[in-house]
Design a protein that fits this description.
- The complex is a heterodimer of chains A (361) and B (261).
- Helices cover 42% and strands 18% of the residues of chain A.
- Chain A is an alpha/beta fold.
- In chain A, the strands form four sheets. Chain A has a five-stranded mixed sheet with strand order 4-5-7-6-13, sandwiched between helices.
- In chain A, β6, α6 and β7 form a beta-alpha-beta unit.
- The longest helix of chain A is centred in the middle third of the chain and has 21 residues.
- Chain A is globular and about 80 Å long.
- Chain B is α/β, with parallel strands linked by helices and 261 residues long.
- Helix content of chain B is 36%, strand content 16%.
- Chain B contains ten helices and eight strands.
- Chain B has an eight-stranded mixed sheet with strand order 2-1-3-4-6-5-7-8, with helices on both faces.
- In chain B, α1 packs across α8 and α4 crosses α5.
- The mean pLDDT of chain B is 95.
- Classes of the chains: A alpha/beta (361), B alpha/beta (261).
């Protein structure tokens, strides 16, 4: 299939259709309105259903119901809307249902602003709603990767019976890039029939109950431990990351995800011309976080720089991964302000210069 | 002499004991719903939705597939199931705190979209499971743990009449109110439930049957008195009858003037 120029939000919507998702429930919020708008005209063309929910609270409970009946379903929103969805997401995780949630992050807290941000990293990776649960979180850095990860997200959700979040920012949603959809896509995980779905119990089949209520504490503890075992399997099997320039010696390792990693890679290209040795490490799964891979990449560096559109959230996972082995620096912008390649390059040069000075003693 | 079965457990009810208090009418309402599902031959393609409230464990009592829903969200969950699988019969079973307080947005919008689902709305004028707090349906002057001097309508407003409220929506629907505090009322309630499920099975419209129910435990009176309390205090304020049919506005029942409980 030929490449097509698509806006990020539209590519995300088309990717869901290509993954066989025929159900979308959502509520308008900037900067992701193009996703529900795309689904509203696209889904009827493939025999699917689009429902504009009365709120994100309702939308998250609609996808809970739809997923419980065994069909592929997705929703999208942006930060304040994702906060409202936490109720449904917690129930979905507790009931072990597969759904895909796209969060096109905007700056907060509160109503915040409508411009790009990465300030919902904690919410996405550390739970968000109540209870001991995890989302599998995928962070694309291009429109093509967003389209690919959305399709994988449906397979991962079905395989683990767990909500999967694709975490982008306003840039991913709004920019236009060439996208290619493979004509014959193979699922990234083996998919079993959904025999657990509540679809009417014909004959003598015991009733299927979609539920997260376990009043007996021993039973609930076992349920929590079963969920934990599932998250451990994700940690073992689903880590995705990428690195750039790590094949050469480098002093500074830049760690960034999503569009900020893209900006940082431009900075590294510029720095190479100036003879500055730096490399980039990019987590693609934010949960599971690529701890071991990052530790290995940081081995060769003198210093580590974390770049985020927040006051520092992923940096906590970087610290956990590196366990004090390397000095960690931070560069961040907030409120919808962006980070330029020049700002990253300047920061890298400053770090390298002071590091060299220290080493000269 | 051959035995003739004159009374049996409906197939749509599981052979279990419920946790409901003595004198609570949830059990009666469960049975009526189950009988209707059996008689219309719907059990094997029915998916129920349990609320948060006293009937939170309804999924253990009905012999149909079930979802447990978050507090008040059953109509949203029902929407998700029905839109995903329009061939299924989907019903939400909700109490008055669940539906008329925390879930007011979900019920109004599900009804207004005309979701082809059925809602069984059990109104006992109080929060039962949490221990007798004031509900949006608590009667004026009625004592509850969070209105210990009785519901003050100047501070808490008047009880919400859900059936009447939903009947104002333009979208076609079947909306009715029944009671089960006497056998005769229960027979009428079953007919309304049958109509509600039939409309769904025919793909006609959204349907909701509000059922006035008892809560002797939290009302603090014996079961027999509780049935009399429904008749004396609830029925005049919450008139019984059909408020809306898909064929057009019915002659809606009118409430009696407000009386202090």
């Amino acid at each position: 299939m030929a490449k097509k120029l698509m806006k990020g939000c539209e590519a995300i919507g088309e990717a869901a259709v290509k993954a066989g998702c025929k159900l979308f429930f959502g509520y308008p919020i900037t900067p992701q309105n193009e996703i529900p708008e795309y689904m509203a005209h696209r889904l009827p063309q493939v025999g699917g259903t689009f429902v504009q929910a009365e709120s994100e609270v309702a939308a998250s409970n609609m996808i809970y119901g739809a997923a419980g009946s065994g069909e592929r379903v997705f929703t999208s929103s942006s930060s304040p809307g994702i906060s409202l969805m936490q109720e449904g997401i917690s129930y979905i995780a507790g009931s072990e249902l597969p759904v895909v949630i796209v969060n096109i992050m905007r700056a907060g807290p509160g109503l915040g602003g409508i411009l790009p941000s990465q300030s919902d990293y904690f919410q996405a990776t550390k739970g968000g709603g109540h209870g001991d649960y995890r989302l599998l979180v995928l962070a694309p850095w291009s429109v093509q990767e967003a389209a690919d990860l959305v399709q994988d997200a449906f397979d991962l959700a079905d395989f683990y019976r767990n909500p999967v979040m694709v975490l982008g920012d306003g840039l991913i949603g709004q920019m236009m890039e060439p996208v290619e959809f493979k004509p014959e896509r193979t699922p990234c995980k083996p998919l079993a029939p959904k025999e657990w779905a509540a679809t009417g119990c014909s004959g003598d089949r015991p009733t299927n109950i979609v539920n997260s209520l376990f009043l007996d504490p021993e039973v609930l503890e076992r349920h929590n431990q079963k969920l934990k075992a599932k998250y451990d399997r994700m940690v073992r099997d689903e880590v995705r990351c990428a690195s750039y320039g790590t094949d050469r010696p480098y002093d500074v390792l830049v760690v960034a995800y999503g569009t900020v990693a893209r900006v940082s890679s431009t900075a590294l290209d510029d720095l190479r011309g100036e003879g500055v040795d730096a490399a980039l490490f990019r987590p693609i799964t934010l949960f599971p976080f690529p701890h071991a891979e990052l530790r290995a990449a940081a081995e060769k560096a003198q210093e580590v720089l974390v770049v985020e559109l927040s006051t520092g959230q992923m940096i906590e996972d970087v610290r956990l991964a590196l366990e004090g082995r390397k000095p960690i620096h931070f560069l961040g912008r907030q409120g919808g302000m962006l980070i330029s390649p020049e700002a990253v390059a300047e920061k890298v040069k400053a770090i390298q210069a002071s590091s060299a000075e220290v080493r000269r003693g | 002499m051959a035995e003739t079965v004159v009374f049996a457990r409906p197939q749509a009810l599981a052979p279990v004991t419920t946790h409901y208090c003595p004198g609570c009418t949830h059990g009666v309402i469960h049975r009526l719903v189950a009988e209707v599902l059996d008689e219309l031959g719907l059990r094997e393609r029915t998916v129920g939705i349990a609320p948060v409230g006293c009937s939170v464990l309804a999924y253990n009592y009905f012999a149909t597939d079930f979802h447990e829903a978050a507090h008040g969200r059953a109509p949203a969950v029902a929407t998700g199931i029905k839109r995903a699988r329009p061939d299924l019969i989907v019903f939400a079973y909700q109490g008055d705190g669940d539906l008329a307080s925390i879930g007011m947005a979900e019920i109004v919008h599900a009804a207004n979209r005309g979701e082809k689902v059925t809602v069984v709305f059990v109104n006992n004028a109080i929060y039962g499971m949490t221990g007798g707090q004031m509900a949006p349906t608590t009667m004026p002057g009625q004592v509850a743990t969070t209105c210990p001097l009785g519901r003050d309508v100047n501070l808490a407003g008047y009880p919400i009449r859900v059936a009447e409220l939903l009947a104002t929506l333009r979208t076609p629907a079947f909306v009715a109110r029944a009671a089960v505090h006497t056998p005769l009322h229960a027979v009428t309630a079953k007919e309304m439930l049958r109509r509600a499920f039939r409309y769904q099975a025919e793909g006609t419209c959204f349907s909701l049957v509000e059922v006035l129910s008892t809560c002797p435990t939290n009302w603090g009176i014996p079961p027999v008195e509780a049935t009399a309390w429904v008749e004396k205090n609830m029925v005049p304020y919450y008139p019984l009858g059909v408020f809306k049919t898909p064929d057009g506005p019915d002659r809606a029942p009118r409430p009696a003037p407000v009386v202090e409980a």
